[in-house]
Amino acid sequence: MKDKKKVFASLFIAFIMVFSIFGFILSYSLDNETVKYNGHKFVNTEQGWLTVINGERFFFAYTPKDVETWINEEVKNQLKNTEQLTFSYNPNDLYSSIITESILQLNNKLHKFTKKQLNFGLTNNSGYSLPLITCSNASEQNPVVLFEESNENSSIDLDNHCIKIRYTTQSEILQQTTALSLVLTEVI
Fold it and tell me: Are 163 and 75 in contact (CB under 8 A)?
């Protein structure tokens, strides 16, 4: 009789432990905020907003709903209808390290998703091995994405195959590059 009680007590404790873990996992997954956009589900995680695109996991700093207003149809069409893009910025800019990191993350995302060729340059290449690239280098076959610090308005505009990203803060750079990533991965 005592053996049956010990077995029952052991099974009861094991049952509680297993279902406690299951309950924790279930509550954790239910607590994650989700956003649905254009057939994609975005889940808020510690690493950012996670979604799956063509079987690959992608993390974004913002959801498409947060950044869709940055991109107009003209810019969207230019980004989608080209086989290559050239990114350029001033290396002496206050936020040049944020721009560099954002462009590298974009490159890593696109490498998994598309065959678009990404090129890189600088608007002031003194002392750097990257080519000098400005809007004057933009063409239909190779648009330029130019990051420019602004004292007034932040925007993403298209001017003769040159996509000008104007920003005033670091968070705007992250929002704008997230918007670019979401367009180039065909979420927006």
Answer: yes
